[in-house]
Amino acid sequence: MACYAALLHQPPASPSPCTSGRVGSCRVRPPPLLQRRAPPLSVRARISPRCSYAAAGESAGAGAGEQPAAALRRVLGTPGAHQAPACYDALSARLVERAGFRACFTSGFSISAARLGLPDVGLMSYGEMIDQGRLITEAVSIPVIGDADNGYGNCMNVKRTVKGFIKAGFAGIILEDQVSPKACGHTQGRKVVSREEAIMHIKAAVDARKESGSDIVIVARTDSRQALSLDEALWRARAFADAGADVLFIDALASREEMMAFCAVSPGVPKMANMLEGGGKTPILSPLELEEIGYKIIAYPLSLIGVSMRAMEDALVAIKGGRIPPPSSLPSFEEIKDTLGFNRYYEEEKRYVASPAQSSFGSGNYDCTSEASSSGDTKSRTEKSQEPIIDILPQLYDPGSAGGRGPSGGMWSRTLRLKITGRDGVQKIDARIPAGFLEGMTKVIPGLAGTNIMERLRNAPMDSDNPQNGQILLDFEDGRGDRIQVFIA
Known about the structure:
489 residues; alpha/beta; TIM Barrel; five-stranded mixed beta sheet
């Protein structure tokens, strides 16, 4: 504990107003580690696209064209201790962003619980974390710091992990020094790798970042406080900073004094606090208290998964008792749709609705200048633009020829009418084609899905609501809510 005592009682440094290493104090520039120059555009790593259906104005994240890591460094370079709740899927990440937070973490503990229904004891694989992470980063525009456990192996595995997290769109990556299989740092039986191996893992991560042309923020975590001692944890934190880590994190510190000792190490490097809710080893302090101690970013790993579990349990009790969850605990359907982006999706979808003039019915080897397209009929259509009509009379059959004689020949004198009405009540199309088209189809395909098409045409019921439409052949709603009707007149 000698190192711990010395750190607590050493006199504070007296930096000049322009050289303070404290990020966000005295209006000074951020420390060099946060001022990394962005790599040239030609060598920047590909990042995941961001979903565009979040409610307008809800994001406080990356600006247009800003790389995720640059957005995170911008956040870390601003004054204050920044709260960053931990998400576990795309929806929880969306809610974090919607609530106005400027960054978020992924929680390996919560992802293991939500994705596998299993404890955080090293069962999650690299591939599963990358897959879940990509869905999360695509759902939001705020920077996301990913939990990469211990890098999933040796230094070469660490390099692959860092490159994979970069491609998945993460702004930062947390790497710890536990042995495999790793587990939650606040549970029993923690073991860590040697000092030398832990440092080489961080150096490998820095090399992977350089090779990728990225600027991902490397958060170096040590679990040696519970596995070995506070002195060892402080030594490793300092060594990680020297190896190139951007943010330092000692998990499971047991007191405010230990937290103060940690923040005194490598003062130019931001520190991360982990407020494990519900009974962890670290004291739960307010953001203001943590800022005064010297922390820059604060994780809340279990809040979202914890309240979700309790809410689901309460809802299931209500349902089992013949009730539904009370309105106070359940958002309305409209609120759910708004959160998920339904309304913005509908607005964007309207940009790609094909007008009747663009319909494929008007293309191909057809003559659309039928007798129905007279000047009077054209004028009528113009006056009734809300009910566009497309008449298609192909010159494939001469009603006066011998081929028109036969039991189905009369079908050429009848008309099939296709009407499509959108879910908003707007008529999208009203097209008419000769019913005789189906005669040729039945010769090639006598039965379609076990149905005699010609027999069905003859026996179709009349449209009782609108007899002028003729007989109803089909009337249904498709998956998008559009009503599709086919009549024969």
